[in-house]
Structure formats: C-alpha cells, structure tokens
C-alpha cells in the first residue's frame, strides 16, 4: 500500500494558513473591543481550540463581568452531572388521621414538594391543560377511600427554604413572570395571569381578573392602552407579598389581554387551587378547613414517616428540563435545578447550598478564579464570570461522558431557541451551539463552534455597559461568530 506524503512546501503553506487564520481571529476580536460602542464598556473574550488545548484569541479573558443567562451553563450542566439525565423530581401527597365509614378523612391532606419545576408547566402541557395533574391526584385520593376531608389541604414547599428569590435580583424583575423564584413547590410556572380590557388608546386599561385568583391580592396599576403591538408593561411585587403594582402600556382594543406576573406564594396557591378543585368536584364531599401553606404554620415539624403516603407524582426528566432551560432560557427552571443540586448533595435546597455544590463539583475540573455566582439563572446582577471561566467549563464539558447530551440542549445559530435569528443565513448558521445572555446593558454568548475546516472551538464573549441597543451589539458580535465558523 502506497503511503501518502506531503511536500515541505505544502506543509509550510498549511502552517502559514493556520497562523494567518489565528491572526485574523485575534484581529477580529481586537477590532470588536475597539468599536465606538465599546468605548466605555467592559469586554471579556476568549476563544480556544478544544482539540489542541490552545488559546486562539483573547481580550481581557480573565475579567469577571455580569454574564446574564450564560450563567445557566453552570447550573444546567452541574444538574445533569450530579442528578443524572433520568432523574425526575417528585411531589408527594400524604394523609394524617383516619378515614371513617363515610369516607371522611378525619385529618389533613399534605402536599410535600421536592422541587418539581415541570408540575403544571406550559412548557410540558397544552394550553388549558396545565392543572390536569389535579385529576390524577383526585383519582389517587379516591382509591384510598377518601370522599371528604374534615381538615385542610396543606402544601409544604420547605425543601428549598423560603428566601423567595436569590440575592441580586432587581426590584423591576421580581414581579414579572421571568422573575418568579423557585420553591419546593412549583406549579403553573409560578405564574399569575392578569387580564385587561384595553379599549381606548391613552386611557387606563381595565383590570378584569387574575388566574389563579387570590382573594388576598391587592393590585393597583397605572397601565394604559396605547397604539403599540406588544406588551410594554411591568409588574412590581416582592416574594410572599400580595401587594402588586403595574405600570406601562398595552396594545389597545383588546378585550382580554394577558400580562404574566410572578406568583407571590406558590406553596399557598397550590393548596388553595387544589382545595377549590376538590370542592368543585361533583363526586367529592366537603373540604372543611381552609388551605394552608407550611411557611405560615406555627407547627412546622412534620414527620412524614408517620403519615400515610397517598401517591407520588413524578415530574419530567432532568434532561428534558435542562433542554428547555437552555433553549428557552427559563429562569425558574435554572433556579430549580440549582436548588435540586443543593438538596441532593447536602440535604439543603437553598440557593446558597446549590451554589456551594456547584463549586464543589467543579473543584479539580474547572478553574474558577475570580468567578462569583449568586444564582442559577443569571438574573442576579451580582454574578461575575469571565470569558476564561466559561471556556474552562466548556472544555471540561467537551471531554466529559455526557458532552453530546449536554450540547444537544444548546440553541443552534440560525435554527433554534434563543439563537434562531443569530447569524441566520451566514457562515455560523448551523455550526454554532451556544447559550445567550441578555440584561439591560449586558450581552453575552458562550458555547461551541465546529468550523467549516473542522476546527473544534469553544468561546465566550461578554460585554457590559455598551452604547446602543442590544440588537446593534449582536450584529457586531456576529462578525466574530462568522470568523470562527470560517477558521
């Protein structure tokens, strides 16, 4: 068999071509950093060759910056590695007391949450079917011979603690749907829908109702109808507070326009909604007591081993939750995954515990100097991560056993998720898999590119406090993405 051989001239040309490509990549990065839009900005960029384990381009790669939703790479990968792709978070229903000859439970029904973010989620249900899980619970209760409850439905979401939201979340975010914190009990994406009539541009919109409804809610607003096409309103309110305030504008001439806000207390709301569901069922008797949340109960030391298990409701798998988290950048899911990691490894489902376990899991695998995480979603403005931190993480993932599984959760440029409109019809389309991150004056991307010439690259690009719009900044970033694709 004849062996292939390359002439010295060919090898020299090949090496020169590679050097020129690397110079071009660094030049593109330097030019980006020097843009007028970045004159007063902070920029951190790193691009590495995963196969050669070498840095191809670098600009302030070790500078720690706010990274927005690219932080989800840390929480989602750690959850996948620690919990396993097939793990399914649970919700358990217990009863205390006995069931008499008439089928009346002489006691209470407990709903114990273990952090299932998928329960009644619109991402896993058809619209209108989000609360169908209650029919499954009712069937299980009937199979235990229960036809009525003399006590209360009590929901217990204490497994994640009661901090509400992580440190560093902005007041302007917390009342809105994307600012819903994770709880040991989550349902309906921890969202409340506010319905408005918006007839008459310039006039105050008429507030109609919420779903789920809450008799304790005090809602005031200055939201007006306007000649616009999209929702430009904001809702304000702290966790566990039933005082909510709305400002901004909504499209005019809509009879039932929906604005989504965060649910003040998912634990209590689930107890209330399930109590309502039982009371409205024609074949079920009374639920005598009022719904309760464990947070407000004086006696919180419940030994579930002494209660009777009615049923176990299993949520969706971790890999399915991770895919949606990264594709659609769902903050609630990312926070819940972080809490689950803390719960699994330390028995404490708080955000603080989850972050500690991320660092424990990364020790000896990923270099994290200068990195500071405050949440799992990136909504906290106290997060500080460098482009080099991201590249170290991406390099470790690339060599891990679940690399391809994790990469399948990332959006693809020009094709899917939050990258659907990035580099559409350009060189990087279909070649770049990444997580995007956006906050006001923050734009970031981190992920992988398999170049047209076969290079296997990882990159991170973070910009804080740039001039101009986010859209304009992304158009500038696309030059770097396309240059990597052609490397």
Question: What is the structure about, briefly put?
Answer:
This protein is an alpha+beta fold and 487 residues long.
Explained architecture:
The protein is α+β, with helices and mostly antiparallel strands and 487 residues long. It folds into two domains: 238 residues, 3-Layer(aba) Sandwich (Beta-lactamase), CATH 3.40.710.10; 225 residues, no CATH class. The protein is 29% helix and 23% strand. The chain has eleven helices and 21 strands. It has a six-stranded antiparallel sheet, sandwiched between helices. Strands 16-8-6-3-17 form a five-stranded mixed sheet. Strand 20 and strand 21 form a beta hairpin. Helix 1 runs antiparallel to helix 11, helix 6 packs antiparallel against helix 7 and helix 7 packs across helix 8. About 2% of the residues have low confidence.
Shape: globular
Major β-sheet strand ordering: 2-1-21-20-19-18
CATH topology of the largest domain: Beta-lactamase
Number of helices: 11
Gap between N and C termini? 33 Å
Low-confidence stretches: 8-18
The total domain count is: 2
Assign a percent range to the helix content.
25-40%
Gyration radius, in Å: 26 Å
Counted beta strands: 21
CATH architecture of the largest domain: 3-Layer(aba) Sandwich
Structural class: alpha+beta
Query: CATH class of the largest domain, please?
Result: Alpha Beta
Report the mean per-residue pLDDT as an integer. Answer: 95
Strand-residue proportion? 15-25%
């Amino acid at each position: 068999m004849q062996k292939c051989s390359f002439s010295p001239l060919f090898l020299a040309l090949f090496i020169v071509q590679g050097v020129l490509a690397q110079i071009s990549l660094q030049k593109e990065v330097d030019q980006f950093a020097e843009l007028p839009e970045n004159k007063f900005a902070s920029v951190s960029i790193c691009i590495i060759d995963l196969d050669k384990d070498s840095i191809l381009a670098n600009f302030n790669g070790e500078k720690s910056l706010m990274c927005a939703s690219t932080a989800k790479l840390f929480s989602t990968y750690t959850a996948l590695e620690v919990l396993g792709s097939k793990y399914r978070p649970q919700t358990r229903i217990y009863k205390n007391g006995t069931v008499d000859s008439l089928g009346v439970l002489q006691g209470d029904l407990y709903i114990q949450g273990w952090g299932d973010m998928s329960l009644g989620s619109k991402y896993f249900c058809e619209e209108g079917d989000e609360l169908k899980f209650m029919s499954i619970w009712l069937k299980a209760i009937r199979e235990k011979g229960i036809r009525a409850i003399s006590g209360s439905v009590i929901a217990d979401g204490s497994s994640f603690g009661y901090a509400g939201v992580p440190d560093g979340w902005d007041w302007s975010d917390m009342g809105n749907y994307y600012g819903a914190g994770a709880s040991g009990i989550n349902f309906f994406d921890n969202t409340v829908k506010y319905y408005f009539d918006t007839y008459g541009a310039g006039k105050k919109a008429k507030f109609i109702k919420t779903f789920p409804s809450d008799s304790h809610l005090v809602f005031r607003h200055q939201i007006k109808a306007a000649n616009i096409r999209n929702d430009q309103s904001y809702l304000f309110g702290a966790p566990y507070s039933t005082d909510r305030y709305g400002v901004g504008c909504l499209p005019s001439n809509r009879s039932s326009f929906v604005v989504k806000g965060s649910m003040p207390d998912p634990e209590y709301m689930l107890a209330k909604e399930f109590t309502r569901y039982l009371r409205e069922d024609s074949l079920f008797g009374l639920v005598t007591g009022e719904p309760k949340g464990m947070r407000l109960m004086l006696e919180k030391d419940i030994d579930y081993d002494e209660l009777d298990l009615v049923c176990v409701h299993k949520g969706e798998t971790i890999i399915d939750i991770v895919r949606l988290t990264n594709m659609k950048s769902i903050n609630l899911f990312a926070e819940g995954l972080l809490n689950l990691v803390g719960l699994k490894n330390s028995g404490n489902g708080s955000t603080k515990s989850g972050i500690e376990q991320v660092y424990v899991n990364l020790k000896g695998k990923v270099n994290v100097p200068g990195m500071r995480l405050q949440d799992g979603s990136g909504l906290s403005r106290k997060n500080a991560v460098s482009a080099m931190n991201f590249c170290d993480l991406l390099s470790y993932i690339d060599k891990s056993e679940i690399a391809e599984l994790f990469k399948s959760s990332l959006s693809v440029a020009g094709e899917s998720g939050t990258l659907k409109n990035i580099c559409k019809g350009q060189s990087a389309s279909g070649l770049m898999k990444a997580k995007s991150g956006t906050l006001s004056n923050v734009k970031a991307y981190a992920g992988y590119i398999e170049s047209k010439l076969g290079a296997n690259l990882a990159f991170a690009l973070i910009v804080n406090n740039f001039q101009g719009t986010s859209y304009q900044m992304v158009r500038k970033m696309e030059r770097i993405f396309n240059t990597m694709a052609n490397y």
